[in-house]
Amino acid sequence: MFLKIKNLINKFEKFLWSKTAYKFYLSDLKHVNNLEKASIFYNTLIFSSKIKPILCDPPKNKRITVIAPHPDDEIIGPGATLIQSTKNNSEIEIIYLTSGKKKDIGVRESEAKTLCKKLGWKSKFLRNEPEKETWNLNEFIISLNKSKPEKLMLPFVLDDNKDHKFANKILLEIFDKLDKKIFSRTEVWAYQVYTAVFPNVIVDITDLKNKKIDFINIYKSQMRSRNWVNFTLGLNAWNSRWLNTKGAPGWAESFFVISFKDYIELLKKYY
Fold first, then answer.
1. Which of 26-35, 37-46, 56-65, 106-115 comes out lowest in average pLDDT?
2. Domain count, the chain
3. Domain extent at residue 102
4. Beta 252-259 vs 201-204: how paired, if at all?
5. Which of 10, 31, 37, 82 is most buried, judging by how many CB atoms fall within 10 Å of its CB?
6. Within its chain, how far is the Cα of 149 from the centroid?
């Protein structure tokens, strides 16, 4: 019993230490108001001595809404975490902001629908044009309010992709039109696609690695430009530096987890 209590106290102390370091991280970035410079600054991993991510289980019994700027972001970024969350009785909906260029919409949405059907996820396609800043915000507002997320996942604001950054910008723009009663209880899980996210939460996906590979491979149309399995599992392997693998191979997904209100404050500092 004593050891159990001691372990619980140690976990709680690590949690508090991480939150303190996390607040330090936000405070130190409060004067960084240029996204390009911030991205360079962020990728130096200068805060590696200030943040120790917490090893967490995937959410259980939650309503999770995932903002995917492109079909495949939802599986490349938080895919294995979502797969396990589904097993943990969570309800998951993917809001796809774009579906590729006009000639590719049919193929890309078909691939996304196949993935969602296999996993039992809901899907919504807004069909905005990639790399354009003329997206349909009204439909986005309606979709988010209707989904009533307890957890909201989207690429981190400094992720190295124009559409990923823009997804964050429009989230800030529509903030005042979102249902405050719903989103006052929402937690953001900002996920990694390109950029080396320095996380405060890590999810061990070692046992789910092969399933993640299978679902990434559904996006055959995207394999022509890059081997996304190799790319993604490489990032997940790099994240394993925060796992105690004892020399064995490991894979992890990384997240920047914060209340919706605080995430909006962070976006205000950038934009």
1. 26-35
2. 1
3. 2-270
4. antiparallel
5. 82
6. 14
